[in-house]
Structures are given as structure tokens and as C-alpha cells.
What we know:
Shape of chain A: globular
Oligomer: homodimer
Helix content of chain A: 25-40%
Mean pLDDT of chain A: 92
Number of helices of chain A: 8
Strand order of the largest sheet of chain A: 1-3-4-5-2
Largest sheet of chain A: 5 strands, mixed
Radius of gyration of chain A: 20 Å
Amino acid sequence: MQKYFITKEDLALNRITGDDAYQIATVLRFKGGETVMVSDTFSNYLAKIKSVSKDEVTFEIIEEKAGDMELPVFVSIYQGYPKGDKMEEIIKHSTELGASKIVPTFMKRSIVKLEEKKIDSRIVRFQKIAKEAAEQSFRSKIPTIDSIPYLKTINFDDYDVKILCYEENAKNGELTNFKSIVSNLKKDQRVAVLIGPEGGIDDTELEYLKNKGFIPCALGKRILRTETAVFYVLSSISYEMELKKWVKLVL
Amino acid sequence: MQKYFITKEDLALNRITGDDAYQIATVLRFKGGETVMVSDTFSNYLAKIKSVSKDEVTFEIIEEKAGDMELPVFVSIYQGYPKGDKMEEIIKHSTELGASKIVPTFMKRSIVKLEEKKIDSRIVRFQKIAKEAAEQSFRSKIPTIDSIPYLKTINFDDYDVKILCYEENAKNGELTNFKSIVSNLKKDQRVAVLIGPEGGIDDTELEYLKNKGFIPCALGKRILRTETAVFYVLSSISYEMELKKWVKLVL
Lengths: 251, 251
């Protein structure tokens, strides 16, 4: 089943407009009678398609669905801006894995330099990727992506917990920090996760982040690429907080 | 520091040959005196470069390093053959995250059809990706990739534990199977993980796999793409089995 994030106004008018309507009419070729999920990011509804045109698809709501598909903590990913199209891959998969906010961050060893005028269009593109990934993974919310800041302009004061993914800890055999932090997380806490770009974190950045309250953590024994670290972090938080041990097997 | 997997013979002769020697001479432009890691996949050594040419780099061994960078269980990933170049992405990241064996598997809903004659060259390419990812992540071993079988030709009898990543379990709110299995794993157990291609697992395949002892599992609350599922599985196994809670913070 497809899921669509629509505006409050469209929800009130029981309609889907814009690119989504176009997709339903021309790619999916729905004719009416099909079932989809619609959401205004607050509530999720099972809806039945009534009419289809390229500009507007109308529906009737069948029932409200429990919408709690979100991680029990708010995780903001501060990702040192990587090379090539890795940032898009990171946004796509981080969204599936439950990130609340993704902040592509310029750090000393980021190789990409974006011209000022290109930043806005890049953010629009990132937001589109996040919206599509949120729909595809049945998220209740779309992660926020609203700027591409330099590290030192970011205010980290509002976070309860600050995790710095740091490969030197893995090389030194540190294996306790990450699990100790994650296993102590409480529902609704705000978690900042910082991951360096390919070249890693500069010494002055390391000191700066430690002073801001970040705790350097190894993610297992192996050295992960920059784009792999975020998968480890979000998967582990889900494993620790969302999954339970069985009373009985559900086959 | 770079890591190189070399043959037993080259290790005995204290030399690096082939593509790796070429890379050291022309890309890294080492001149001698630099330190690298070398491994025959059984032992790991810190080595100092003595001489460099495009055909042969010689070294002297400084010391043997503890080589246990491997997950405490043997995880074989049976990945329903996906579209495009996703299989390469999966091999790269699964290697970083500790998979022992990766088996691209033709399933009913795999869209890719490889001609017989192309399979061998594809396997060679996959093995190259796994070797590079193992070097980059400081693995002690390179994961095995030695065939692209059809699902029903695979013998799963030797596995202690069989995990089927199944999105319908996530849709139905099942949240206990995966963690119950992973938290009960014992060192050196053999774990089979099966992940369907983009279109998912066919009903007849589902029944077949259940009969073979696979347990369907949700991976958190959200619906993951085929290429994201494996990251969740391997990260969670590392988190559960490799990481510990602290006695004290290591800063």
C-alpha cells in the first residue's frame, strides 16, 4: 500500500494534489476503489480512492490508524558533509531508520564546497528524498532538513545526550561508551549524533565537541565508513528501545 | 593506516604484489618507511615498508597485532538479488559490519536475470568489493562470496539460527522475534539471514523458508528497504554481542 503525506488543508478536503496526484494518475494508474494511507504527519488514515485526475485525487477516510511508527527518542543526525551522492543515501536510509532531523554539516575535512546559491536547491532536493523515504517506510513524520550549517554555528544546548561517532575509539578497543549511553536512554529524550566526513574529525573539532558534551564512541570493533555509521547508530537505538524479548514466538 | 590482505606466500616473502603494490607506488606514492597492516586473513601484522616499485613492495614485520575484529558469530547473508547496483552497496556495507558470507540469491521476485556466462565475472567483481571493504574496515577476514544460487538449491541445514527479515511482521506490529533470537546467540554459532528483493518474499517462498526453520522477524517499527535490512541485522548483532555497558566512560 502507498502512503502519502498531505497538507492539513488537503486532508480536510479529502484530496491529494500536486506530484502525488500526478503519480497516482499516471504511474500507478489508479481508477478509484484502491486503498492508500494518508497522513498530515499528526494522524494516519486508511483511505479509499474515489476519483482520479492528474491534478486531484479524492478519497474517503475509512479509519484512523495507530500512528506511532516513530523511535521513542528524537534523534538528530549531524552528518559531516560527505563526497558524491552519499548525503542522499544517508538521508534516505536514516529516514527509514527513524531519524527526526538530519543536518548535513560542513566540517573541516568536508571536501564539498557548495556555493551559497546552490544550498537552497540542495535542501529542497534533500527534503524531497526524506519525504519519499518517510512515505515508503510508513513513518508518521518526515525528518526535518532545513539548513547546511558550519559545525561551529550549531547550538547543541537543547540535547539531553550527545554521541560522537569516533573511529579512533574503535581502533583503541573502546567498546563500552555507545551501549552504555543507548541502554540508558529515556523516552522522549533528545539525542544528537555527530558523524565526521570521510577524512574524519579534526583534532580541534574533537576538543570543541568534547567541550560541548559529546562523548566519543566506537560502533563495534570494525572501522565503519562515514555513510555506514548512521545505520549502526539508528539500528541499535531501535533494537534497544523498540524491540522486546519474547514471551512466545510470533510465526 | 592502510591494510592489505596478501597471500601466505607473499607474507612469507615479506612482499606485497599485484594491484596493491601498484596502488602503493602510484596512488599513495609511498617511498619506504611508512607503516601498514598486512594480513593473510589468519594473522595481522604491523609492517614497515622497505622498498616500493609498481610490481613489488617489500616490508619488514614490526609486530603481530591482535586480530579479533570479527563478530562473535558467523553470519551468512542470503540477499534476494536486488535491482541496479544495490548488491554492490550491500556487499560493501555488510563487509564493514562483519558478515562472514554473502550470498546474492535469486528469488521469485528478483527482477535481474543474469546470463550464465556473466555470473562468474559478477562474482569476481563482488569478491573484489568485499576484499576492499574488509581492508578498509580493518576486518581480519574477507567474507566469502562464491555463487549466485536459486533459493531452493541452498542447503540451510548447517545453521544454528535462521532469521527471515519479513516486512509483514513489522506491519502487524510484531516486535519480539528478532531481539529474542539475537539476545540468545552464543559465541561461534552459525546464523543465516534471509532478506527478500524489492518485491518481497513470495507466499510459497515464505512457507518453504518456515519449513526450513526460518523465523520471520520485524526489524523495528518501520518498513525498511531491502538494502537497509542487512544494516539493521548486523548492527544489532554487534550492539548486542560486542558492546558492553560501562564501568567508566572512556573519553
